[in-house]
Amino acid sequence: MAHRSWCAENPGHASNERLEFLGDAVLGWVTADVAFRRFPAMSEGELTGIRKGVVNTVALAQIASELGLGQHIKLGKGEAAAGGSEKPSILADALEALIGAVYVDGGSATAYDVVERLVADRVSATAERLDQLDYKSTLQELVAGAGKAAPLYDISEEGPDHDKRFFAEVIIDGDVLGSGHGRSKRTAEQAAAAVASKALVASKQVPGPPDA
Questions:
Q1: Is 96 among the residues known to form the active site?
Q2: Catalytic option among 20, 79, 96, 169
Q3: Are 89 and 145 found together in one domain?
Q4: Which of 107, 130, 153 is the last residue of a domain?
């Protein structure tokens, strides 16, 4: 697997990024489908919480580490010297690329089977601790550790009182870093915070949180 830092030093070779894009979509699809089928009584917000608890940089990096993917990633000299093979963002991207490659080579059924084996136990474990997941607190810890301003949440709502839907945007240092929606303000804020946390870690502005 070729990281972009290696490709920059070795022109003419394609990086993993296109496969990462595809693998990310496959991961989200399979995880959502597994959660939907296993927990028929759960609400949209709860199912979203499960997906975000499973498909995030830290959780994917853990899976990648278990598979030993780090040793198979081609890195540029600087990235390798900086321990890139153990960085959560690089490991997570490598796993996404691997899944994207499985999808291209083996088709959707094969990719589904592979991803299901990788995430099924994590889906169940996340469902059991769903009430404990607090992405707002995680985001607060990330930005505080990076010396950034506290997150601000901009909330809007649509629909009648009996069927209201809430939309949230999380703003950090003047930039919108995540958005989400749900049947309550809390669900919308948590969804937005989860997106913002992943964006910050992916951009390397902050280190990954200790727990998924």
A1: yes
A2: 96
A3: no
A4: 130
42-95: pLDDT as tens digits? 888 788 888 988 988 888 988 998 999 888 888 778 777 877 677 888 888 899
User: Distances from the Cα of 118 to the Cαs of 27, 111, 141, 183, in angstroms?
Assistant: 10, 11, 28, 30
> Do 151 and 50 share a domain, yes or no?
no
Helix H, strand E, coil C: the string for 127-148 is: HHCHHHCCHHHHHHHHHHHCCC
The one catalytic residue in 20, 24, 93, 169 is 24
Q: Which two tokens stand for residue 167?
A: 């939309």
Per the annotation, the verdict on 131 as an active-site residue is no
Q: Which pLDDT score, from 0 to 100, does residue 211 have?
A: 44
Q: How many structural domains comprise the chain?
A: 2
**What does pTM read for this prediction?**
0.61
DSSP 8-state code for residue 150: P
Fill in the DSSP letter of residue 184: S
